[in-house]
UniProtKB/TrEMBL annotation:
Residues 8-88 form the RNase H type-1 domain. CDD domains: RNase_H_like (cd06222). This is RNase H type-1 domain-containing protein.
Length: 119
């Protein structure tokens, strides 16, 4: 199943921004765990450096800069806290979100542990 282009672009942009931040902060072993399989396949492809998508090539370039980079697919059902955090952010900007209260995160973790869906 192919991911719609806008969703694919968003997932790839998230990977790119995260790896760029990891490089800037000198994180030697970044791990990215997107919940969409298609971008993971694209950036882990041995021919990612010649992809027709510029973001895939840019991610490939960042991955090569790091000593060890793991980009691992985590199904959305297994990554409910991250999915819930993403849904808590404002969708009208592209800046990182900072949560003032750990309560927001604790609520997500509690719901994940008890098996409740995050909507």
């Amino acid at each position: 199943m192919l991911v719609p282009l806008n969703t694919l672009h968003t997932e790839l942009l998230g990977l790119y921004e995260g790896l760029q931040l990891a490089w800037y902060l000198s994180i030697e072993r970044p791990i990215a765990q997107p919940d969409s399989l298609e971008p993971v396949k694209m950036v882990n492809d041995p021919h990612a450096n010649v992809s027709h998508l510029p973001l895939v090539r840019a991610i490939n370039s960042l991955v090569k800069k790091c000593l060890i980079t793991n980009i691992i697919w985590i199904p959305q059902e297994c990554n409910m806290v991250a999915d819930g955090l993403a849904k808590l952010t404002a969708h009208d900007h592209y800046q990182p979100s900072i949560f003032d209260s750990p309560q927001e995160v604790l609520n997500l973790i509690t719901r994940n542990v008890t098996g409740l869906t995050i909507s």
